[in-house]
UniProtKB/TrEMBL annotation:
Keywords for the protein's UniProt record, in alphabetical order: Exonuclease, Hydrolase, Nuclease
Domain annotation 3'-5' exonuclease: ranges: 246-414
GO biological process: exonucleolytic trimming to generate mature 3'-end of 5.8S rRNA from tricistronic rRNA transcript (SSU-rRNA, 5.8S rRNA, LSU-rRNA); histone mRNA catabolic process; nuclear polyadenylation-dependent antisense transcript catabolic process; nuclear polyadenylation-dependent CUT catabolic process; nuclear polyadenylation-dependent rRNA catabolic process; nuclear polyadenylation-dependent snoRNA catabolic process; nuclear polyadenylation-dependent snRNA catabolic process; poly(A)-dependent snoRNA 3'-end processing
GO MF terms held by the record: 3'-5'-RNA exonuclease activity; single-stranded RNA binding
Superkingdom per UniProt: Eukaryota
Protein name listed in UniProt: 3'-5' exonuclease domain-containing protein
Species lineage: Eukaryota, Metazoa, Chordata, Craniata, Vertebrata
UniProt organism field: Leptobrachium leishanense (Leishan spiny toad)
Keyword Plastid appears in the UniProt entry: no
Length: 451
């Protein structure tokens, strides 16, 4: 028997033993609201609890950091409430279990020997150790499907790519669906008041402008957004890929036409592909959108400076935007295109609330659509043009089934809450919180959320 096999067999048993022992020990501790309050009246007990508690938080924070999760569990200025701490922990557990699931798949052969598929004409990719996946001296290897000598797309951009590590200023100059207008740019000399008062108002405005500069342009609309109630309806089956037209959007006219179509939909699915191997903050390379009857692949490298026109549909509170794990997508949309989302439903958040155990899109595709997705392109170089057919098909599958998954999950969320909206509301709330994120730069890897 080889060493790896025996290790693989013994490790889970060892891990299970440790977990059982820890659970047993923790249930043996005085319970809160019961003996705990009595014991806590002794200073010695209190001091011991505090020091051990801090030690535990420190360990947890380190484990979370190692897995690239938000880990400020110890920082009282950031996480005050027990509930917030618990949320961080659930996030981290999800991420760790997701990784365990993937590794077990690999061990049991489900995902064994997966080599990246090679688009015709591209060289075999080498395993590249890239700077962003080197963690604290330990290098991990990721398989990157990487096109060499590709023309840097940013050469074509109308504005320079800002890779600075400074706070991000929203790129928005028109605000469709506004309930509050963008901050006023009126000059002091235009005010019909005495000069001294005009000067005072101007000073106040300068202060305000600085705050507005970094503020979320749709905060007011998101804060006041009320999602529509979901009624229990029969879920219509999804259309197979081959029965749905797939449009490649590369020109402004096509983008305008797409926006017109989206404005006639009551729900759409959206996803992005991003490239961050050779650039500090990376760049968004592709946007996939699916309606109930059509799929669209938008070449956002070509249309980068025109993408803002989609704000008309993306911020329309009457159109539901379905994403899966939108944390990064929302940041990329804001940073690269000045695009904002109002009325979003995140199927990753729904999966967490339904306690599906594994919350990746592959898992939902398998569970609800019996579709085996091929994640080999996830780390592909999405700057490649023309996009190879295999990559288009991969990208398309990321949104094609998402509206069906959204229907199924809404039904399950209703059923799990005995027909009440409570669980659905939780998904809307968490999705709204993601939309409210402002794109803060200078984050440390430990601050990145993991999906
Ligand atoms: P997805 O939401 O799965 O379509 O992924 C969107 C983008 O996130 C991809 O184009 C990659 O740039 C990035 N990405 C996804 N998964 C990973 C991963 N495991 N490691 C690093 N980057 C990833
Ligand atoms: Mn995505
Ligand atoms: Zn994707």
């Amino acid at each position: 028997m080889n060493v790896t096999d025996s290790l693989l067999r013994e490790l889970p048993i060892h891990a299970l033993g440790t977990v059982v022992a820890a659970t047993k020990a923790s249930t043996g501790l005085p319970q809160s609201g019961d003996e705990y309050d009595f014991y806590r009246s002794f200073p010695g007990f209190r001091a011991f609890c505090d020091s051990q508690g801090n030690r535990l938080l420190g360990c947890m924070s380190q484990v979370m950091q190692y897995h690239g999760c938000r880990s400020h569990i110890r920082d009282r200025s950031k996480v005050g409430e027990m509930e917030d701490k618990f949320d961080l922990l659930v996030d981290a557990n999800d991420a760790v279990l997701e990784k365990v699931g993937m590794l077990l798949d690999e061990v049991t052969g489900v995902a064994r020997n997966k080599q990246p598929i090679l688009p015709a004409g591209l060289q075999a990719p080498k395993t590249i150790i890239s700077s962003w996946n080197r963690k604290k001296g330990k290098s991990e290897t990721f398989r990157l499907l990487h096109a060499k000598n590709i023309q840097r797309p940013q050469m074509k951009f109308k504005e320079r790519l800002d890779n600075s590590n400074t706070p991000f200023i929203p790129k928005i100059f028109v605000k469709p669906n506004a309930q509050r207008p963008l901050p006023d740019k009126q000059r002091p000399e235009d005010l019909d008041v005495p000069p001294a008062l005009a000067d005072f108002i101007h000073q106040q405005r300068l202060k305000q402008t600085e705050e507005d500069m970094f503020a979320h342009p749709y905060k007011y609309e998101l804060d006041h957004f009320v999602p529509a109630e979901t009624l229990l309806e029969e879920v219509k089956p999804f259309l197979p890929l081959q029965d749905v037209p797939c449009h490649f959007v590369t020109t402004l006219d096509q983008l305008v036409e797409l926006n017109e179509k989206l404005l006639r939909c009551s729900e759409i699915a959206v996803d992005l592909e991003h490239h961050s191997y050779r650039s500090f903050l990376g760049l968004t390379c592709l946007m996939q959108i699916s309606t109930r009857t059509e799929d669209f692949i938008v070449d956002v490298l070509e249309l980068r400076s025109d993408m803002y026109i989609l704000n008309e549909s993306f911020t329309d509170p009457a159109i539901i935007k379905v994403f899966h794990g939108a944390d990064s997508d929302i940041e990329w949309l804001q940073k690269d295109f000045g695009l904002y989302v109002v009325n979003m439903f995140d199927t990753h958040q729904a999966s967490r609330i339904l306690n599906l155990g594994r919350n990746s899109l592959d898992h939902l595709l398998r569970l609800y659509c019996s579709v085996e997705s091929d994640k080999r392109f996830q780390l592909a170089d999405w700057r490649i043009r023309p996009l190879p057919e295999e990559m288009i098909q991969y990208a398309r599958a990321d949104t094609h089934y998402l509206l069906y998954i959204y229907d199924k999950m809404r039904t399950e969320l209703l059923n799990s809450a005995n027909g009440q909206q409570i669980l659905l509301q939780l998904v809307w709330q968490r999705s709204r919180d993601i939309c409210l994120k402002v794109n803060a730069r200078g984050f440390s890897p430990g601050e990145l959320t993991c999906v």
